[in-house]
Each structure stands twice: as structure tokens, then as C-alpha cells.
Amino acid sequence: MLHISNLKKGFQRTGEIFLPVVSIDELVLEKSKMVAIHGESGSGKTTFLNLIAGLLVPDEGKIYLDGIALHELTESKRDFLRATSIGYIFQSFHLLQSCSALENLLIAMSFGGQANQAKAKEMLDLVGLKDRMSHKPGDMSVGQQQRVALARALINQPSLLLADEPTGNLDAQNAQNSLNLMKELCASTGASMMIVSHDPYVIHAFDHQVAWDDLNLVSKHQTCS
After folding, report:
1. Who has the most CB within 10 Å: 18, 38, 60, 75?
2. If DSSP codes are grouped into helix, strand and coil, which group holds residue 206?
3. What pTM does this model have?
4. Dist. CA 13–CA 6, nearest whole Å
5. Mean per-residue pLDDT for 45-74?
6. Which of 96, 93, 205 is nearest to 153 (CA)?
7. Is residue 220 part of a domain?
């Protein structure tokens, strides 16, 4: 379902120093599988997710999602693939602050080609926000915002859900509830999930675990996120 090979990404620093960040020989994630990648903050995990999501272009290597060569797509085609096939929960959520929870979902649906209000309301109900649909992010708790972000990530029924430290801003109880909800919704839709975190509690919630330092060939002392 997701196949990565010979993936490399680095950045140019001041003084023309090139800093390698991601170097992965191969990674395969099968359909409906859920994996947690654990490693220190600032070690390149976010860059890795951004490459899979098509937000960044690799310097070298190949990324295949459902047989589509993501690394060969134009920016506009990467945007469409991300809207239709990849759900992304950002660490800081990236919700549209001027829009309600319902509007955040409808806008995400419009990028995928069709905004369906009934479907958006159903998804918000599934994540426990039936009474918060008209609320804007600033009027919601952090846990509620996280659930809006989850609903938005899954509203177009993607085949892959990416989550970048999704519980980092939550207390222990809300973190547990959010993890359970993510796993349940992915299981119900058949979506694969890749989550990155430095929190042992989050990692141990998944049967399949990968150490970032084992996956990434770049020295852990050369860090960047």
C-alpha cells in the first residue's frame, strides 16, 4: 500500500552547509496496518511524514502510495492525492481559526471534490462533537480541537492516515481517548496509519513499532525537524 525506497532529503543551511535529515533504504506499510515510529524530537520524523504527504519533494528516492508514484507527481497532483488519499493530523492541528468545526470539514471535503454537509455532521458526531459543530477552534478545548483535526483527516476516507505527535498537547486521559478513537476509525474504514511520537505511552499503544534510529540512516546527532 505504501512503499518507500532509497529515500533521501536534506536542507541547505547558512554558509552552504548541507544537512542530511532523512535517508531510508526501504519501508513497506501494508493495507490496514498501523505502525508507530518512535524517536527523539527534532530527529527528522516530521520531515519524513511531510515527504510521504507530498508536502516536501525528496532529493532522491521513490514513494509509492496505492501504486501511484507520488515522487513523480506535479505539485497540483500531489495536492489532490493528499486531499483524497492521505489524512494528516498535524502536531499543532492547523485548523482554520475563522471557521467552525463543520466548516473545517466541509473545506477539506471540497479539496477532495465534494462537500457533503450530512457526511461532515455524521463524522463530527462519531468523534463526539455533535454539540460543537458550530464552534470555532478558539472556543473549543485542546482535546476537542484534536478531534476536529482527526475528523478532518478522515472525512475523505483516505487509505493512509499520518499523525505527527497527535497527543503532544493533550493530558493523559484525552491522549488515551484520542488514540483509541484514531485506531477505531482507521479499523472501521480499513485505512492504514503511521504515527510518529517520542512518547513511550503512545508507542506502546501500537502492536507494530519501529525505532526511527533503526529506520533512518542519518546519524541521530544530525537533527532537524
Report:
1. 38
2. coil
3. 0.91
4. 23
5. 96
6. 93
7. no
